[in-house]
Design goal:
Strand 4 (121-122) and strand 5 (130-133) form a beta hairpin. The chain is α/β, with parallel strands linked by helices. It is globular, with a radius of gyration of 18 Å. The chain contains ten helices and eight strands. The chain binds S-adenosylmethionine (SAM). S-adenosylmethionine binds at residues 156-158, 184-185, 187-192, 205-207, 210-213, 216.
């Protein structure tokens, strides 16, 4: 099974220190919400965000949105062989049900994320499709390994071990019962901390240039799908 964790996702509500700024207040009025209930977004809050520490890696929910669209509802996901978690910059973990159908419209996604961060789950009642779970990243990785000594933990990282598509493919197990846990950064700029990096056994650079998160996500999903023959199996009836 392939487990993707989107690391340090740039997804958070507008932090208290900038809720009273004019730009934020205006946006809140347009949306009919309190400033503290808005998802931080560089498109709307860029000027105000200058006051935030590490602002270059925050306020980009679109990266997570496009990445999720590129990996959910794929054949691998439909076969129940993909799990997806978000790791937020404050350390919280979001569990995503693989059968969730995300809105095709970005504004509606923003509304869902606001509900998630305010209430801890979406929808508020019934079986959660998205839910904040009380677990650390380290314990999540241990849980996904499920006690399997052969489980792989791979981190996609620029400047790491140069890995061609063929090398990555042969690294992936053909046996889908072996957990493969992949960490991919879901923020625009900056680097991952050593505390996060050290949780993964192998660090792989997949292209000589910096790629977008959703491209790296898609590369893992499709290479893994080919490796475990999912793509072929879905047409084997012909
Ligand atoms: C847009 S980048 C973030 C930029 C940041 N400079 C970094 O080093 O993480 C988002 C994520 O995509 C992955 N990524 C981007 N380019 C990559 C590459 N050439 N090889 C492997 N992973 C890459 C990494 O996981 C990275 O954290």
């Amino acid at each position: 099974m392939l487990h993707i964790i989107l690391l340090d996702s740039a997804l958070e509500l507008v932090p208290r220190e900038i809720t009273t700024l004019k730009q934020i207040q205006k946006h809140a009025a347009r949306r009919g919400k309190k400033s503290s209930e808005l998802l931080l977004d560089q498109t709307h809050h860029g000027q105000s965000m200058i006051r935030l520490s590490q602002n270059e890696r925050r306020g980009r929910p679109d990266i997570t949105y496009i990445s999720l669209l590129s990996i959910l509802e794929t054949p691998l996901c439909k076969e129940g062989l993909l799990s997806v978690h978000l790791h937020l910059q404050d350390g919280q973990i979001v569990e995503i049900q693989p059968d969730v159908r995300l809105p095709r419209n970005y504004d509606r996604f923003v509304g869902l994320m606001e509900q998630l961060l305010l209430q801890g789950r979406v929808p508020p009642q019934g079986d959660p499709l998205l839910q904040i779970v009380n677990i650390s990243l380290e314990d999540l990785i241990k849980k996904l390994k499920a006690g399997n000594d052969t489980a792989l933990t791979l981190l996609a990282s620029e400047g790491a071990e140069k890995t061609s598509v063929n090398e990555l493919s042969s690294l992936l197990p053909q046996d889908s019962s072996v957990p493969v846990i992949v960490g991919i950064g879901s923020f625009p700029h900056g680097v991952l901390s050593e505390a996060i990096t050290s949780l993964f056994n192998r660090r792989l650079e997949l292209d000589k240039e910096m790629m977008m998160t959703w491209h790296i996500c898609a590369e893992f999903v499709w290479l893994y799908s080919l490796r475990i023959d999912i793509v072929k199996t879905r047409y084997s009836v012909i």
